[in-house]
Automatic annotation (TrEMBL):
<dbReference type="InterPro" id="IPR014782">
    <property type="entry name" value="Peptidase_M1_dom"/>
</dbReference>
<protein>
    <recommendedName>
        <fullName>Aminopeptidase</fullName>
        <ecNumber>3.4.11.-</ecNumber>
    </recommendedName>
</protein>
<dbReference type="Pfam" id="PF17900">
    <property type="entry name" value="Peptidase_M1_N"/>
</dbReference>
<keyword id="KW-0378">Hydrolase</keyword>
<feature type="site" description="Transition state stabilizer">
    <location>
        <position position="425"/>
    </location>
</feature>
<dbReference type="GO" id="GO:0043171">
    <property type="term" value="P:peptide catabolic process"/>
</dbReference>
<dbReference type="Pfam" id="PF11838">
    <property type="entry name" value="ERAP1_C"/>
</dbReference>
<dbReference type="GO" id="GO:0008270">
    <property type="term" value="F:zinc ion binding"/>
</dbReference>
<keyword id="KW-0479">Metal-binding</keyword>
<keyword id="KW-0256">Endoplasmic reticulum</keyword>
<feature type="binding site">
    <location>
        <position position="344"/>
    </location>
    <ligand>
        <name>Zn(2+)</name>
    </ligand>
</feature>
<comment type="similarity">
    <text>Belongs to the peptidase M1 family.</text>
</comment>
<dbReference type="GO" id="GO:0006508">
    <property type="term" value="P:proteolysis"/>
</dbReference>
<dbReference type="Pfam" id="PF01433">
    <property type="entry name" value="Peptidase_M1"/>
</dbReference>
<dbReference type="InterPro" id="IPR001930">
    <property type="entry name" value="Peptidase_M1"/>
</dbReference>
<dbReference type="InterPro" id="IPR042097">
    <property type="entry name" value="Aminopeptidase_N-like_N_sf"/>
</dbReference>
<keyword id="KW-0645">Protease</keyword>
Amino acid sequence: MATRVAAAAGLAVITSYLIAARLRKNSKAVKLTTAFQGKIRLPTSVTPSRYDLELTPKLDICKFDGKMTVSLRIVEDTKYIVLNAADLTITDKSVWLRSNTSRQMFWPKSVELHPEDEILVLAFEENLSLGEAVLSMEFQGTLNDQMRGFYRSSYKINGETRNMAVTQFEPADARRCFPCWDEPSFKATFKMTLHVPVDRVALSNMPIAEETRSSPKMKTIKFEESPRMSTYLVAIVVGELEYIEGHTPDGRSVRVYTEVGKTHQGKFALDVALRTLPFYAKYFGTEYPLPKLDMVAIPDFAAGAMENYGLVTYREAALLFDEKVSAAANKQRVAVVVAHELAHQWFGNLVTMEWWTHLWLNEGFATWVSYLAIDHLFPEWQIWTQFVEQTVDAFRLDGLVESHPIEVEVGHVREIDEIFDAISYKKGAAIIRMLQTYLGADTFQRGLVSYIKRYEYKNARTEDLWSVLSEESGAPVKELMDSWTKQQGYPVVSVQLKSEALVIEQSQYLFSGHGGDGEWVVPVTYCVGAYKNKMSELVRLKTSVLSTHKLIHDKQANSDSDMTSQDSSPDLSKDWIKLNVGQTGFYRVKYDDELALRLRSAISAGSLEATDRFGVLDDTYALCIARKQPLSVLLSLMEVYRSETDYTVLMCMTNVSYRILKVVGDAIPSAAKDLKHFVSNLLLPSAERLGWEARPDEGHLDSMLRGELLSALVFFGHEDTINEAKRRFEAFLKDRESPLLPADTRKVAYTAVMQSVKSSDKTGYESLLKIYRETDVSQERTRVLSTLGASCDPAIVSEALDFLLSPEVRNQDAIWVLAGISGEGRDAAWSWLKENWKTVWNRFGESVLITRFISSIVSLFSSDDKADEIKDFFNANSAPGIDRTVGQSIERVRITSEWVKYVQKEEGIVEKIKQLGG
Ligand code: BES
Ligand code: ZN
C-alpha cells in the first residue's frame, strides 16, 4: 500500500489522512513514532552523506517519478530513520537499507508519513548496525502550480502552451521533490540523473557528465556529483530553452538561459555575472567553487531570484533586460539581483547558516556585498549613496512593536517564510555596513576571507562570524553586535549642546512614540564643521558626553605644524555638527534646536554630502511620525532642499511627500491642495532640468530620476505634467517606437492616464490592457500592472483587481496591481479583498505572495476604527504564515491614525501649509 501525504488545503486529502491516522492508531508502531512528531529539528542519529537521485518529470500530466539511493552514517543506536517528505507518495515495498559494515539488509516494518510535521518515519524491527549504510526508495509526486518544491511553469511556443519543470526549494521544500534531511546543516553531495524528452534542455547544479538516449523519445542525463551542500540549494530545470554563453578569466562557463527567442535580453545579466565572479573570488579570497554557472529566466517564479548552487533561477524581470523596452531602474534591478545571487555562491552556498535563525547571515550579507560588487562594476551609479534606502526600509519595519530580532527562533516551517523580510535583508545589511565602518574595510575583508576558509563546505552561526572578526581586529565584536542582532529595534540618539559639550542620550525609537526599553552599543560617529574633523566613539550608556576635546586638541596640534588648516579648526560654539556621518550607523539622530538650525544652514550652503542630507531629512520625518516634532518643522526643513539634485535625496523628498500628503489628506483635507502645490514646486526645478527625453550622454541616475520626479508631479496633480504625459501617451499608442515616450518615462504616462479613468470612459484602461497583451517583455507587463490600480473610481479599482485574478495575469505578477492602489482606491480594494479572500487564499496562500495582499491594502488606512475592523476580519480568517504581517500592518494603521490626530491638533499648521503652497 502506498502512503499519501496530504496537501494542506485539499479537503478530500485531509479526510483520507484522518482516516489513515485513525487506522494507524490501532497499530503498535504509531506509539513509538509519535516521539518524532511536533519536533522542530530532525534527530541526528542518522545523517546523509551522498544522495543519488533519479527523477522523471512527466511534463504533460504534471507528475514525476523518483528513485533515491542515499549513503548514510548511523551514529547512534536506533530502530528509526526520520527524514523529511511532503506531498509525496512513497512506494513502501521499494524501501530497503543495507549496512556497509555488517552487510546486513534491513526492510522497514512500517513506512509512515506525518503530513503535519512533513516527516517520513521508517521503523525497523531491530537496531540498525552502526556505521555506513545505504538507504533506497522509490516515490511519486506532482509538479504543482504553487511555485515551490518541484513545480510547473508554463510558456508558449508557436502559440501552444507547454510546461516546464522547475524547482524552488528554499527554505524547506526539497522534501516535496524527494525524501531528504531538509535542514541546512545536513550537508551532503548530490548526484542527479534526469529522464526527459529528447527535445528538452535539462539543467541541474553541476555540468552534464553523460547523456544517453534511452528510447526514441527519451534521453537520460547524468550530472557530475556536487560538492557538499545543503538540500535547499539543489535545483533542476527542464524545458525548451536557449542560451548565450561567456567564460570567466579562469575558463568557467557562464550561461544565461531564456525562453526561445529571448536570449538577446540576457546579454546585460551575462556581462554582469562575468565581471562579478572574478570580483568576488578576489574579495572572498576563494575561487568560485563550481565548474559552471547557469542563470535561468523562469516564467513563473515566486521570489525575485534563487541562488541554487551553480543554477541560479530568476523571474524574468530580474534577469532580462531589453535595450528598447526596459528602463534604467530595470537595469539596476537586474545588476543588483545578479550580484546578490552570485554573492550567495560563497556566502550561503559554500558557507551556510547552521539553522534559519541565522538566515540573516545569508541574506544580510548577500545584500551588503552586492553593493560592493555594483560599486565596483558601475561606480557612476553611486550605489553606496543609494544604500541608505535599504537602511530606511529596515527602519520602517524595525520601528514597529511587531518587528522581531535579526536572530529569531523559528518554530513551524511555515514561520521561516515570514522572516525573509526587511529585518533579515536590510537591517542585516545595514548593521554589517556599520560594523565594516567601525572595523575598517581592510580588517573586515581579511576577517571574511578567514571566515570563508574556516567554514567552507560547512555551516556557521552568527557568533562564529563574530569570533573570526574579533580575532582579526582585536575589537569587541560580539558585545557590539549582540546588541543589534539579539534584540529588535534601534535607538534614536538625542544630541544637545550643553556648555561646550555634546551630551547624548539613547532611547528606543518606535513609530508609536512610546514604550521600548532597548539599549545598544552604538558606534557613534560625528563631524564638526567639516568632513575632515571626524570622530568616532562606542557609546554604551543611556547618557554620555562625547569626547570632543580630543578632536579639538588633535586639531590644534595639527594646525600648529600646518598653517594652512588653521582657519578650519572645529568650533563647537558655531560649527554644524552631524552625527552618524554618511548614515553608516543603524540609528536615528535627534538634534536640539540650535544644532538643527546649523544643519539647515549647512545644507543650504552645500556643505553636507548626499547621504547626510538624506539622513537629516529622513530622521526629521521619522521624529514627526513618532510625534516628537511638529509637522511644520519638517515642512520648513523641506524648503532647504529646493535646489537638491541628488537622486537618492530627491527620492527621499518624494517618499516623504507621499506620506505627508496621505496624512494631511486624512487630517485636514482642505489643506491637501496647498500641500500638493508646495511639494510640486519643490520638485519642479529638477524635473525641468531633466525634461521628458534623455540627453544623449546623460548618466544612469538622471535616467532613473526623471521617471520618479515626473511620477511624483503627476501624483501631486501638477496639471502641465499630467497633460504632457497624456499627449505623449497618445503618440506612443500610435507608434510603439515613438521617441516621445522612452522606457524611463512610460510609467509616468501610464499613471497619468490611469488616474483619470472612470467607469464612464474606460478608453485609457483598455489602451493599457492592449499594451499589456501585446508585449513579450516582463518589465513592460509589470509596468502596466503597477498602474492599473491608480484610478480614483472604486469600480475601476475593483475591475483592475478582478483582472489580477484572471488567467491573463500570472500569479507571480498579481502583486504589482496591489502596489499601484492609491489612497482613493483603498476602500474599494479592502472590500474586494474581503469578498475574494477565499479565492486569494487558495491561490496564493501557499506562497510568500499572500502577505503582499495584506500589507499593500491594509497599510493604506489611517483610522482606529479601520484597524479594529481589519483585526476582526483576520481573527475570523486567521491562517498560518500571515500572523506577523497582519500584526505589522494593523500597527501601521494605528500609527498613521495617531499621527493624523496629532496633525489635526497642531497649532497653525493650516496657515503654514497655506503659506507654503501659496
Ligand atoms: N534566497 C533568496 C530567495 C528566496 C526568498 C527564497 C524567499 C525563499 C524565500 C534570494 O537570494 C533573494 O534574496 N532574492 C531576492 C532578490 C535580492 C536582490 C534581494 C528576491 O527574491 O527578492
Ligand atoms: Zn538572497
